[in-house]
Amino acid sequence: MNTRRRRRVRTSGSTTQHALSTAAVSGILQTADYARHVFERHATLQRSPRDTEAAVRARMKRQEWLYRPGKRLNVLMPESVLWGRICPPDVLAAQLGRLLGVVGMDTINLSDVLDERLVVVEDWHAELTLRPDYIAQLIEVRRRRQERIAEGGVKYSAVIWEAVIEHPLSTIETHREQLLALLEAGERENVTVRVLPFSAGSLVAAANAFAAFSFDSESAVEAVTMDDLMSTSIVESPTDLAVYAGSFDLLCSSALTPEESAKLILSKLQVIEEGMSWPRS
Known about the structure:
Blueprint: E1 2-3, E2 16-20, H1 32-46, H2 52-62, E3 72-78, H3 80-83, H4 89-103, E4 108-113, H5 121-129, H6 132-151, E5 156-161, H7 162-166, H8 172-186, E6 191-196, H9 201-206, E7 211-213, E8 223-227, E9 232-235, H10 238-254, H11 258-273
Parallel strand pairs: 1-9, 2-3, 3-4, 5-6
Antiparallel strand pairs: 7-8, 8-9
Helix pairs in contact: 1-2, 8-11
C-alpha cells in the first residue's frame, strides 16, 4: 500500500485526456454555476477557505484546452450524474444543455452508462489486471473483516449513496442479495447503515470514497484509506485526518437515519421482488 503523496501534474500540454466521472460532471465540461456549487461543497467538507470564484475562473480557463487544435477528450460517466442533485434545478438544466452542446464536437467523445452494466473502478481493475488467485485473496480479506464485524467486537458505520442501492452492478439477483445483506447488517447493534439521498448530491460530488479507522476505545480517527485503480492510499497526517473526520460527520448528518435508510433499501427490494422493470427516472 502507498502512503498519500501530492504531486502537481501539468495537463495543458496533453493531446488526449480520458476522464471517468462517477459523482459529478467532469470538471472540464462544467458550467461556471455548476462548478461553483461543487467547489462550495468541497470547501465545506474540507473546512478550507472559500476561494470559490478563483477556483471557478481557473476551471473555466482550463476548458480553453478543448478548443485547441489536435486535442481529444474522452469522458465516461454513469447516468446518475445526469440527474444527481448537485445544484438547483436551473443550474443543472444549464449544465445538461452544456453537455448537449459538446456532443457534436468532433474533439469530444461523451458516453454515459445507460444500463445495468455500470463501470465499477474496483471490479474493472480486477478484471483487467489482477490474477484470479489475487482476486481470491482480496475476497478472503473482506470475508475476514466481515467476520470481525459479525463477532461484535468492531463498531462499523457506513454512509452509502442512494445510487449504490438504486443501480445493480451485475445481475438483478446479485443486487437483491446485496440489498438483503445490507438490511441484515444494519440490524446488528454494532453496525449503522445510512443512505445519502440523491438530494445530497453536492456532497457526493465533493467526497471520494474512503474508510476511516480508530484503533483505541476512543473514536478519534487514526487512519484513512482510499482505494484507487492500482493501490490503496493511507492518510495519517493529523491535519488531513481531521478533515476526513469532519467530512464523515457532515455526510452522516446529511444522510437518512438508519431507520429511514432501511425503509429505502426495502423499497428497492420490493421493486425487484415484484418483478418490475428497473426504474430509470
